């Protein structure tokens, strides 16, 4: 869907923008809530579902799922899926798919392990090599998809087989471990005691406060921009309430982490990636072009978008993030295995669609994909705490994914019928 510039506000004498009428920008009471729920049902639905899942498993596990130790384990165990989801949502917004990311995670971690464990290279050489391999793999996929014109489904399916085989060759079908402690700290390390604290880590609470402040500034700027262009926004009371609720959730999460082992280093990596890619997708030309290609390829081409170049870099980026996920996964597992990364692509794709991305492209957000990944993580962790067998867990995940896609199809049909 090609992007269009927002309508310019009326001009007062002298060229200054005229103040929009309050009635055009603010809604109050019942109509305000109804507008929010109907206009942004896709975006708000995932947050409501996430809260419901968290509460459900907190009750079913007697509060164990929200204990400091378990919340820390969720961050450590599912961080690499969230990294993959960040890259996958960009691929899916553009109307593509990547089935190879699990194999690429295995290959990048294998290359890193061979260099660091077998060859005795410094730990940072392994990290750089893993990222470089991921970029090369992404360029390989991007070349075939963007410049040769083979559908991404076929290219990445071939890549899934190709890079799994390469992983087995690199490792000679044997596992390698352990990594040096410096490497392992990438995903298993913590920042604790930097600012002290009596029974808790004050630094973790400070980072949580900064996160809440950054969120408040971001949504306030978005609100000001919408008011400027006479777009509907929620009432000030509801706007403040939203910030308070989000802030309370974030600080409660930070409080639990502060009473466990402190701030996980991998959580900092995730935070940086979410902020960076949120800016890229929302505030850059490249991000707008990705949405344009996925929304309406013909219109994007006629608008001057260099479709081939954008598609190429989309897959290069996916390869880079697969390398990041490979480093995190191998650091977490403290080694590399030929079977590493099995079904990671399915978890990443599920996170993206559950997070609100459209199956036809053009719709999706970084935050939505991360929340979708967290929802899957909370479900998996909760079912593990309840000792539910793996087959039942797989069926539950499959049903949740099916319902998420069905919801997307239903929304599209309803929107088409209302035109």
Automatic annotation (TrEMBL):
Chain positions covered by the region annotation Disordered: 1-24
Pfam families with a match to the protein in the record: BPD_transp_2
Domain of life: Bacteria
Molecular functions per Gene Ontology: transmembrane transporter activity
Keywords: Cell inner membrane, Cell membrane, Membrane, Sugar transport, Transmembrane, Transmembrane helix, Transport
UniProt entry tagged with the keyword Transmembrane helix: yes
Sequence intervals crossing the membrane: 44-63, 75-94, 99-117, 123-140, 145-163, 199-217, 238-257, 263-280, 310-329, 349-378
Compositionally biased intervals (Pro residues): 1-10
GO CC annotations, alphabetized: plasma membrane
Protein's membrane topology: Multi-pass membrane protein
UniProt-listed PANTHER family: ABC TRANSPORTER PERMEASE PROTEIN YPHD-RELATED-RELATED, XYLOSE TRANSPORT SYSTEM PERMEASE PROTEIN XYLH
Main function: Part of the binding-protein-dependent transport system for D-xylose. Probably responsible for the translocation of the substrate across the membrane.
Protein name: Xylose transport system permease protein XylH
């Amino acid at each position: 869907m090609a992007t269009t510039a927002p309508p310019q506000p009326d001009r007062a004498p002298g060229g200054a923008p005229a103040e929009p009428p309050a009635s055009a920008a603010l809604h109050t009471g019942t109509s305000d809530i109804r507008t929010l729920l109907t206009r942004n049902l896709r975006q708000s639905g995932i947050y409501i579902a996430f809260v419901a899942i968290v509460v459900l498993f907190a009750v079913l596990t007697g509060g164990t799922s929200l204990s400091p130790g378990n919340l820390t384990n969720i961050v450590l165990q599912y961080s690499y899926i969230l990294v993959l989801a960040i890259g996958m949502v960009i691929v899916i917004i553009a109307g593509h798919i990547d089935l190879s990311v699990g194999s690429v995670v295995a290959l990048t971690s294998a290359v890193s392990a061979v260099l660091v464990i077998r060859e005795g290279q410094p730990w940072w050489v392994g990290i750089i090599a893993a990222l470089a391999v991921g970029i090369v793999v992404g360029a390989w996929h991007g070349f075939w998809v963007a410049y040769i014109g083979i559908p991404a489904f076929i290219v990445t399916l071939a890549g899934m087989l190709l890079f799994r085989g390469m992983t087995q060759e690199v490792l000679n079908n044997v596992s390698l471990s352990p990594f040096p402690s410096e490497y392992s700290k990438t995903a298993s390390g913590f920042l604790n005691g930097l600012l002290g604290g009596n029974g808790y880590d004050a630094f973790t609470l400070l980072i949580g406060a900064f996160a809440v402040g950054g969120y408040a500034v971001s949504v306030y700027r978005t609100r000001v921009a919408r008011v400027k262009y006479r777009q509907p926004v929620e009432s000030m009371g509801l706007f403040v309430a939203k910030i308070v609720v989000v802030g309370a959730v974030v600080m409660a999460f930070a409080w639990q982490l502060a009473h466990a082992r402190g701030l996980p280093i991998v959580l900092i990596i995730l935070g940086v990636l979410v902020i960076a890619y949120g800016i890229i997708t929302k505030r850059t030309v490249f991000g707008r072009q990705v949405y344009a290609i996925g929304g309406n390829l013909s219109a994007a081409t006629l608008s001057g978008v260099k479709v081939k170049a954008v598609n190429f870099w989309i897959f290069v980026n996916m390869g880079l993030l697969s390398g990041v996920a490979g480093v995190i996964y191998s650091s977490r597992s403290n080694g590399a295995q030929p079977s590493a990364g099995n079904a990671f692509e399915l978890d990443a794709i599920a996170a993206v669609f559950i997070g609100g991305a459209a199956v036809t492209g053009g719709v999706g957000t970084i935050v939505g994909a991360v929340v979708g990944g967290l929802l899957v993580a909370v479900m998996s962790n909760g079912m593990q705490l309840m000792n539910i067998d793996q087959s039942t867990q797989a069926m539950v995940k499959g049903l949740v994914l099916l319902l998420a896609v069905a919801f997307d199809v239903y929304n599209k049909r309803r929107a088409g019928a209302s035109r």
